[in-house]
Amino acid sequence: xxxxxxxxxxxxxxxxxxxxxxxxxxxxxxxxxxxxxxxxxxxxxxxxxxxxxxxxxxxxxxxxxxxxxxxxxxxxxxxxxxxxxxxxxxxxxxxxxxxxxxxxxxxxxxxxxxxxxxxxxxxxxxxxxxxxxxxxxxxxxxxxxxxxxxxxxxxxxxxxxxxxxxxxxxxxxxxxxxxxxxxxxxxxxxxxxxxxxxxxxxxxxxxxxxxxxxxxxxxxxxxxxxxxxxxxxxxxxxxxxxxxxxxxxxxxxxxxxxxxxxxxxxxxxxxxxxxxxxxxxxxxxxxxxxxxxxxxxxxxxxxxxxxxxxxxxxxxxxxxxxxxxxxxxxxxxxxxxxxxxxxxxxxxxxxxxxxxxxxxxxxxxxxxxxxxxxxxxxxxxxxxxxxxxxxxxxxxxxxxxxxxxxxxxxxxxxxxxxxxxxxxxxxxxxxxxxxxxxxxxxxxxxxxxxxxxxxxxxxxxxxxxxxxxxxxxxxxxxxxxxxxxxxxxxxxxxxxxxxxxxxxxxxxxxxxxxxxxxxxxxxxxxxxxxxxxxxxxxxxxxxxxxxxxxxxxxxxxxxxxxxxxxxxxxxxxxxxxxxxxxxxxxxxxxxxxxxxxxxxxxxxxxxxxxxxxxxxxxxxxxxxxxxxxxxxxxxxxxxxxxxxxxxxxxxxxxxxxxxx
Length: 660
Known about the structure:
Blueprint: E1 2-7, H1 11-20, E2 25-31, H2 34-38, E3 46-50, H3 55-65, E4 69-72, H4 79-92, E5 96-98, E6 111-113, H5 116-123, E7 129-132, H6 148-151, E8 152-156, H7 160-169, E9 176-178, H8 185-195, E10 197-203, H9 211-221, E11 224-228, H10 239-250, E12 257-262, H11 273-281, E13 284-287, H12 289-295, E14 301-304, H13 308-317, E15 323-328, H14 338-341, E16 349-353, H15 358-366, E17 374-377, H16 385-391, E18 394-399, H17 404-414, E19 421-426, E20 434-439, H18 440-443, E21 452-457, H19 485-495, E22 502-506, H20 512-520, E23 525-530, H21 533-545, E24 551-555, E25 570-573, H22 580-590, E26 595-600, H23 603-615, E27 620-626, E28 629-634, E29 637-642, E30 646-652
Parallel strand pairs: 1-2, 1-4, 2-3, 4-5, 6-11, 7-8, 7-10, 8-9, 10-11, 12-15, 12-16, 13-14, 13-15, 17-18, 22-23, 22-25, 23-24, 25-26
Antiparallel strand pairs: 18-21, 19-20, 19-21, 26-30, 27-30, 28-29
Helix pairs in contact: 3-4, 8-9
C-alpha cells in the first residue's frame, strides 16, 4: 500500500485528508496542535501527528516511514515551515509536492503592503480603530502601531496560547475577539461595526481563508482593507490538480464531489452555514445567473446552467475541477431542479444541502404558519389553480413568466374568485424584496416581478371531492349535445382518473366531461377534441367559465387531429364520427395501457363497440346499460321522466394479473 504524508494545517489540507480517507493508501496527517487534530475527520487509513516539528524531526519521520509522497498543504504565509518540509524531503530523498491555495481578488482601493513592518508604517500615518485578522502569532510585530492598546482589536482563536500571546503583546481584554471561523460576511461586518474599525488588516488568504468575506464586509462597513501580500511561493499545484495527480499516480477513486445547495431566497444571509461552506469550498459553481451573482466568489469559476442535463454534462466533461457546487433557489426538495438532477449524477460523490423554501420565507414574513397550506407551482407547468383555490382555504403558488402573478390574479377574478386575499412576495430575499396584500380583483390590474410567490387565502373554500356538476353549471346550446350529470358521473367513475392524468375527450361537444376531467386532474392535462364550430365556441366558453387552465381545445376530426398529442393515460369517447376503430388504434398505439370509456345511444354504435371488444387486445372490459329518470312537476304531482338509455363501455389496455 502506498504511504502519503500530508501537512494539513489549512482548509485545503483537511479537505485533502478527507478525500484520502477510505482510499487505498495509508495517510499520516501532520498538524501543529491538538486543536488542529480536532478539525480532521477520522478515517481507518489516517494516522495523525499533532505537534510542531523541527526540520530534523521531519527528516527523521520521513526516513522512518519511507513515504511515497509528502504533500505540503501549509498556510501560504508559513514560509519557514514550508522550507523545513522541503529541506527534510531533500535530505531523505522523499518526493515533495506543494499544494497551493488559490488567490483572491482584492478591490482596487485596498492598501497593499509587502509585509507586517510596512503595514505598521502605513497604519501610523492614519487615524482610527484597527481590526487585526492576521492571527495571534503576529501580534507582537504590530505593537509598533501608535496607541496600540487603544486602537488595535485582535481576532484570534479561542485557545490558551492565543490568549497568552494577546496578553504578552499588550492587547486589552476588551479588545480581544476570541472566535473560531469560518466567518461570514455578515459576521465580519458586525465585528467591524462593533469595534468601530476604520481599517481591517488581513493576509491574502484566498477563498478558503475567508478573504472574499472580509472584502465584502469591509466594503459594507466602510472600512479600508489593508492586505499583507503573500511571501514568495514554491511551485506547486492547486487542490484540484493535486487530487488529479494522486488519482493518476496511486489509482485512487477520483469521483468529483458535488454539493447540490439550496441557497434559500437568494442571499448569503439566509443560507445555512453548511450551504455557505459548500459554496466557499467549491472550485466551480453552477446555477442561474441571479443565483451566481448572489453567492459565488470572484475567484471561482461560474457556469450559468439551469437544465439538469446541461449541469450533468458539464460536471462529467470538466474533470479539471474536483469540487463543484450547484446552486438551487429556495429548498432543494421544494419544486427544485434537484429532483431531476440527482439521477444523472451516478458517477459523482453527491451531497444535498437543504435551504429555506420560498413558502417558509414568505409565511415567516407574514407571521403565519404553513402546515395547512397547499403548495402548487405555475412555473413552467399547466395547472387548474382556480380549482385549488376553490377547494383549499390557503394555497401557496409559485408564479412564473412575465407578470405571471398579475395573470394569476386575473385568472382568479375571471373564475369568480376576485374576492380572495392574495399576499404577493416579490424578489424574496433580495434588496428589492416587496410584499403586497390585496384582493385578487384589485391586484389583477398590477404588474409584478417574474420572481414572485403568493399565499392565497379563501375562507369560503370548500373541497368537493366527487364529480357530477349540475348540468345548469355549464353554458349549453340545443344544437350541441352534452353528457348529462348522472351519466357523466358514472363515466368519470369508470375512468378512474389520477391527479396527473393525461386525458383525451374525443367528441367533446359542450365540454362537460372535459371540464370535469380538468377539475379532477389538477397536476395533469386534458385535451378536448371537437370538429363542430358551434361546439368549439361552447367549449371555449365553458373552459373560461371554470378557469380550466389545464384544458386544451383541439379543433379537428379524430384521429387525425390527435396525431401530435401526448400519449393519453385515459380517454373518453363521446362521439367518434364514424372513426371509432381508427381512434382506438391510435389510442393503443400511443399507450397500450390506456384506459378508455365510451358511450353509445344508438343500436348501431352499441354494435360497433361490442365488436371492438372482441377485435382489440383489451385486458379488461365492461359494459353497463344505464337508464335515468328525473322527477318533474305535473300540477300537484311529481312524475318521473325517463332519458334515453345509454350504454357505457369500459376498456382497459394490457395490464398484468395484479392490476398494474
